[in-house]
Amino acid sequence: MNPPTSRFYRSLLRLLPPAFRHRHGAEMEAVFLEMRDEARGPIGRAGVYGRAVWDVARQGSQERSRERAARAHETRTTRGWTVDEIIQDLRYSIRQLRRRPGFTLVLVMTLALGIGANTAVFSVVQGVLLRPLPYDNPEELAVIWTQFPTMDLMEFQASPPEFWDYQEQNRSFAAVGGMARREQTITGEDNPERVPVAFFTWEMFEVLGVEAAQGRVFNEVEDQGDAAPTVVLSDGVWRRRYGSDPGIVGQSIQINGDATLVLGVMPADFAFPDPAVELWLPMQIDRANPPHRANHFLNLVGRLAPGVTMDAAQDEIASIVARWGEDEAIGHTWRPEGHPAFIRPLHTQLVGDVRTPLLVLLGAVGFVLLIACSNVANLLLVRGEGRQREISIRAAMGAGRGRIVKLLVTESTVMAVLGGAAGVGLAVLGLEALVALAPDTLPRVAEIGVDRGVLLFSGGVTVLSGLLFGLAPALQATSLNIQGTLRDEGRSGTVSKSRFRLRQLLVVSEMAMAVVLLISAGLLMQSFWRLNAVDPGFRTEGVLRMAIDVPQTTYPEAEDVLGFYNELQDRLRGLPGVQAVSAVRTAPLSGSLPPNDIEIENYEPPGDDGAPLNADIQIVEQDYFQAMGIDLVEGRTFDHGDHTEAEVVAVIDEVLAGRFFPEGVSPVGWRIRQPGSEWARIIGVTGSVLQEGLDRDARASLYLVHDQAPLTWRFERNLTLVMRAGVDPMALVGPARAEIRAMHSDVPVYRISTMEQTVAESTATERFSMFLHLVFGGVALTLAVVGIYGVLSYSVAQRTQEIGIRMALGAGRGEILKLVVGQGMTLVVVSVGIGLVGALLAGQVISSLLFGISARDPLTFAAVSGLLGATALLACWIPARRASSVSPQTALRQD
Amino acid sequence: MKTTRYHILLALAREPIHGAEIRRRVEEDSGGAVKLYPAMLYGSLDDLTGAGWISEVPGEEQPGETNRWRFYELTAEGRRALESETARLAEVVHRAQASLGGTG
Predict the structure, then answer these.
(1) In what order do the strands lie in the sheet with B54-57?
(2) pTM (2 decimals)?
(3) Nearest Cα residue to A714 out of A677, A669, A661
(4) What is the DSSP code string of A724-743?
(5) Residue A146, SS3?
(6) Given the DSSP bridges, would you call strands A193-200 and A613-620 parallel, antiparallel or unpaired?
(7) How many CB pairs under 8 A join A and B?
(8) Least CB-CB distance to A16: which of B20, B39, B69?
(9) What ipTM goes with this model?
(10) Rounded alpha-carbon distances, angstroms, from residue A546 to A578, A703, A719
(11) pLDDT tens digits, one per residue of A503-514
């Protein structure tokens, strides 16, 4: 017989499933040969061959799908994709990936970057925003704030009488507790320590629904005004200071020199109101001798009664406050509507400030992931072209389009899973850095971690990415004309236009997203610069600050404390390199001071609302303005003659002067006081200083000198020392500590930093945001540029022949350069256009994070467009150069 | 009923025959219009066997052939299907002629 023909037909039969082939193969061959012999002439025979191939391929595909259906029925798997197929696809995918390790590595790392960034940021979002607070039914917890709108105090504390009224009159809350965050000194052992503490009314533990891990929390009796001092320790201080000694419960420790009974130790995860708190002390307000109604110092937290909504509770609180306003006997405020109250869910209160920045960050990394996916999709498209023949053969062998799509999607999913695994690894590493970088103001940092929820998220993101970057190339790859590819043997000239268009589309979307990210990063960066350029009102460089607390045991009276401070300052002035020494109640940019009512002698404040004058009262030592470098505007500042025996004096700042003295009237010489204290004559006006933050306005400030404070205010045990040094201020820490220790061994020294560090800390959140956005923006730019480079290089390779013809017809190098660069820059211009529109939309979200710059800042928009344009131009230039150096002969000979 | 299947049933109407012979007779019966290429042929034979219209019968040794051919015969059910389809086709032809006569 005819061996070559038989061999041809036998190999053709391999397209059929084995069972069919074994059963009918021999007979089929015989029939085929018979038909071939019957055919007349070479054309007739060729027809028989062709139709035989078609016949076998078609039947093969039918038989296989029938087999598949049968097997699907047997194994009861999902319709259309059996377990066998999946395993087969997986094996094949892994083989494919291993065959090109470099390509795989690039893809996996790109994905790992995207998925890792998303996982890390989502961990933060999950820990901070999403996870419920670690209390029973945390959704029932709400904080109650009071307000003094005329003083611009929109979130203010309540006074004890108000607190008691809420407790007695409201029905919405099952319980209401009060709290105040303070600092106390643990003494009695070798190292005195100033620690953050929270004073709780006894109801507070009940409201939160927490109990001590050891011992117990304090009860109603222990919270009474005349009760003995008791304390509940944090897990942290118990481990750190008391060596995890379970015997500590029932013993006494020294707090501010007082023996205080340890009632219990809280669980490690109890961190209310914040993780820094180390002790919980009973508030012990004396009900028999209650504080004044205007004495606002309690932060209130309530637990809603079952079935009561936040809105209902809000309404009730409002009506209670309105009733107070009508009751003359209460003498609540000068106007009923002048002191409203509102409630806010505790969770919102804790995370409110970081919610927007975190969500914006999540949006940014989402973009990074999309860009990474686009890039991977692009790379796959390139490779998909190299695989056209393989796919065509598969199709010819009867693999349906769906089957091939599944195979390709399996491949991309395998890649996505590798990328996802690497990404989670990166996230675990990155998260440590992220948490380390995170500002102290980020709440619930301890709760950040890669947990099940985060892994679930990463898994979801991974699968989604796999589909996203895998599906489009797969659909593209299978939509091609099989016969066409087989005939052309996948030659370069036949790549479909739509496929190239898809790649262009991907690059455009990548670059557009990069524009959005870069503009956001640029805006945040400028916002940060502007924030840092704000004049805080003092000279930041060269100032060391350290807080101390003068112990009551050794220095019980006012004159003892004042004497201590004066002697200490004299000693510190003697240190080499020290230019000025002073002390202050609360250093600038270190937190707000509660505003106080003030009076000016023989002065009626302008305006008709009758609101009392108020100002922040700063207690300072004499040389404060010199030490901090605060400008004197008028008159003089304090000097060492301003002591208890001399005339009582005050310095005010420009804000206070501007608010209460009409233009042309000098405040100097007028007398001012806080109600009930001695009058102080205003001797000078200074520049205003930012107390609460660089992005907050300066508040009206009244400075009183510490030596006279017993007459005008009260003496302060704990002040922040400020020292202006000619040298590196941190070099003063050791000598200063030694001087303090030399005076008394039981004085805690804490919060040691330079004022420059204080300024930096006050913008830590902004720095964090900006830094991350810059990193993500940079990644986005890199990926987008790689993307456009890839597309153009590919396009140039595809068009070599065309370029050759153009050059043969007389086109110069310049024209070719222009052609290719023009093609690339068209994409860039379109991308930038779309990106700018996107950035305008994104601006609505980030505008609340910006300081001193509009979210539509034209300069930023222009700069980012320019940056992207320039980078992209470079990326276009390289392939364009390659195109222009094509030799026409080589190009035309190519195929 | 598919044309190829009808022709295969028809080819088997008189006696049990094997695949190659079926192919020849179908081509002959259809005046060369229906060419059964091998895969289609044996796929259809499998289908018809599965449907119970034909069945395999032990064949006799063919002199001069190295293959052992499988022989197929029409089952009673297959014959009924062939007859009803033939009747349907006859009806179609009848109507077609009437229509053509009517219009032509």
Answers:
(1) B17-18, B71-74, B54-57
(2) 0.70
(3) A677
(4) EESS-GGGGHHHHHHHHHHH
(5) strand
(6) unpaired
(7) 58
(8) B39
(9) 0.90
(10) 14, 20, 9
(11) 888 889 888 999
